Amino acid sequence: MATFSVTNPRKSRVLTGFMALYLLYTLVPLVWLVINASKTQPALFSTSGLSFGDSFALFDNIGKTFTYNDGIFFRWLGNTLLYVVVGAGGATILATAAGYGLAKYRFPGRRAVFAVVLGAVAVPPTALAVPTFLMFSKLGLTNTPLAVIIPSLISPFGLYLIWVYAADAIPDELLEAARIDGAGEIRIFLTVTLRQLVPGIITVTLFTMVQTWNNYFLPLIMLSEPKWYPLTVGLNQWSAQANGAGAQPIFNLVLTGSLLTIIPLVVAFLLMQRFWQSGLSAGSVKQ
């Protein structure tokens, strides 16, 4: 009878220490935000940043955040959801279709497209913000939701992720079998390959959603009316009220709004974590 011995993986105290420091570095800002969102405006300056105030004012701050300035926070939240659903959702759809096509079809200029995509991944979005503004200004689209949505539809990194994932996750034999059965290319894409691409699609969705949700510089230069602001720009406007001759600091509402802003992202990551992990590890193990 054969016996098998299971050895425990080696543990590194140095790596464990680095992970503990990284965990502390990640959690301390979140803890600081939760604690300070529960303070009143005076308590923010009279108590330590990591200690609670005399009274727990979180729920009172939440109520004031939603009602301040005629409930503009609700408008900013709706704008952010619009930009994420249409912009990030559209970017995921386009990246999925284009990435699959580039991975599974051969056509002239394919290598050139690959080079352009890699080059686009290396360009920071802030470098394109000003040229994009000038172009949209000529078209008369600035200060409209389209000025934020249309640039968000392009995700070179998402396209590259789907391209790499589809190349390994979808066997060419599966496509050939579907073609022999008489299925057209669109039907193959919708009924066969989409199921195989789900982990990759979830991964791209998370990346584009976070990128659009946290987008600040593009809406800042594209939008001038507060009614079209996303949460990032709107909360920064609230923070700027503390400056100037007629200063009206509302840091307690800024912190509470920041806490409310990250909750949807945390929920999304928790719900789609297993798909995200499987998407990132696709192709790492060969049979």
Could you provide a short overview of the structure?
With 287 residues, the protein is mostly helical.
List the helices and strands and how they pair.
Elements: H1 13-37, H2 41-46, H3 58-104, H4 110-122, H5 125-139, H6 146-152, H7 156-169, H8 172-180, H9 185-196, H10 198-213, H11 217-222, H12 231-240, H13 251-271, H14 273-281
Helix pairs in contact: 1-13, 3-6, 3-7, 3-10, 3-13, 4-7, 7-10, 8-9, 10-14, 12-13
Family: Belongs to the binding-protein-dependent transport system permease family.
Main location: membrane
Domain ABC transmembrane type-1: 77-272
Structure description:
Its main location: membrane. Pfam families: BPD_transp_1. With 287 residues, the protein is mainly alpha-helical. The protein has one domain: MetI-like fold (Orthogonal Bundle), CATH 1.10.3720. It is built from 14 helices and no strands. The chain has helices spanning 13-37, 41-46, 58-104, 110-122, 125-139, 146-152, 156-169, 172-180, 185-196, 198-213, 217-222, 231-240, 251-271, 273-281. Helix 7 packs antiparallel against helix 10.
